[in-house]
Amino acid sequence: MKYKSKEIFDFMDMWAKKEYMMSWDNSGMQIYFDTYISNILLCLDVDDKSLEMAKNNNCQAIISHHPLFFGGEKNIIEGSYRGDLILSLINNKISVYSGHTTLDVVSDGVNFSLARFLDLKNQESLALDDGLPIGIVGELKEEKSIEEILKNFRDKLNIKNIRTYGKDKKIKKVSLCGGAGSSYMDEAIKNGSQLFISGDIKYHDGQYAYENNIIAMDIGHFHSEKLILPRIKEKLLEKFSELDIFIKDDSSYEMF
Which residues take part in binding a divalent metal cation (predicted)? Predict the structure, then answer.
């Protein structure tokens, strides 16, 4: 069954509302064709591999987490990587919608998905940014060792490289922020969390965690956000039950 493109993207806007978008972001429609959609690709990044997968599965639309247009595109040049990517999306009439900070902020978005994986209880927002709630703090059902938490990520999410900084301790209270969330570590320290989980945690952030008696776990930018993809699929199928939805659940950029 095919659904009108406007109907699908309006639904995304109703869930990941524009008022949830931070001032520096560019969530929402990136490329729009007024057409009918039966197949959609979900991905974190719109790149050549995502485009290839979309074309191979006859997708009329891509919904991504990271925006296609983010850095203030000034030109589209045939023969360049970005130019060929954008022109191919247009020539193949593939609409692109991106939910970035809108899906970070919404209560059942990126951070909810990571907290659900950890089965955190008593969840609250970790911090405010641009006046919007970001991240989650909650509690595990029971204390766990850091080794148990690492094993869960490695076994169930297939994360091979996890950097962990700090001093070994039992974990009960956890703060998290998907993506590049190290700037919120102070909030985790203030609320008494034993563990802070995010991506893109730098070496000196790890030193800061050690000095402030919290464990900082860097599961990688991609892996800290990828659970939003099955969540988007769940939401879409609740409304558009006959959509064919494909998920690109690997990173095009990480080699090892």
Answer: 65-66, 104, 221, 225
